[in-house]
Amino acid sequence: MEDRLFRNAMGKFATGVTVITTNVNGSIHGMTANAFMSVSLDPKLVVISIGEKASMLKHIQQSGTFTVNFLSAQQQELSMLFAGQIKENRHVTFGDLQGAPTIEGAIAQVSCEVASTYMEGDHTLFIGRVKNIHLEDGEPLLFFNGRYGALSAETTLQV
């Protein structure tokens, strides 16, 4: 199977967009990721997937912690910055969730302690034990078919 076919198929799964942050010896690091999911309610666990070539891999291994920041529909530029799509240096102001670095304006911030690590293929899966959560109102930034998007009033399901 060709890599492009696999990537195209995975792009058909609409996801939210997150920025994963961590603090290593007072230096905050971040990367855009959509490979995130909740794992368990009891105990409260989530998983993120980090590629073997990503510098974030060693940062999370060193810190033993990470924060998942769910970006709002207004934060596409931040996603692009942390994905390396914007090359120029920009100042980012980070928030703090009881010692965990956060992206201000994110609609959810979930701070975690690494509970376990699994290497599979060309990625490492970090299972995180949720330590704290902060929520904000707002619409999520979405990613589908290689493009950013947002919910609209016409497509939002009412339950």
Highlighted features:
159 residues; alpha+beta; Pnp Oxidase, Chain A; seven-stranded antiparallel beta sheet; three-stranded antiparallel beta sheet; 3 helices; 15% helix
**What is the straight-line distance between the termini?**
40 Å
Mean pLDDT: 92
* Strand percentage: over 45%
Overall geometric form: globular
Domains (count): 1
Order of helices and strands: HEEEEEHEHEEEEEE
Fraction of helical residues: 10-25%
Task: State the CATH class.
Answer: Mainly Beta
Strand order of the largest sheet: 3-2-6-9-10-5-4
Flag low-confidence runs. Answer: none
Q: The biggest beta sheet, please?
A: 7 strands, antiparallel
Number of strands: 12
If you compute it from the alpha carbons, what radius of gyration comes out, rounded to the nearest whole angstrom? 16 Å
CATH topology: Pnp Oxidase, Chain A
CATH architecture verdict: Roll
Q: Count the DSSP helices.
A: 3
CATH fourth-tier homologous superfamily? Electron Transport, Fmn-binding Protein, Chain A
Care to describe what's here?
The termini are far apart. The chain has helices at residues 3-10, 55-63, 76-82, and strands at 15-16, 18-24, 27-33, 36-40, 45-51, 65-70, 94-97, 100-103, 108-120, 123-135, 141-144, 147-150. The longest helix is centred in the middle third of the chain and has 9 residues, at 55-63. It has a seven-stranded antiparallel sheet. A three-stranded antiparallel sheet has the order 1-11-12, with no helix packed on it. The chain is of the alpha+beta class and 159 residues long. The chain has a single domain, classed as Pnp Oxidase, Chain A (Roll). The mean pLDDT is 92. The chain is 15% helix and 48% strand. It is an enzyme of class 1 (oxidoreductase). Keywords: Oxidoreductase. It holds the Pfam family Flavin_Reduct. One of its GO terms (molecular function) is oxidoreductase activity. Its EC number is 1.5.1.-.
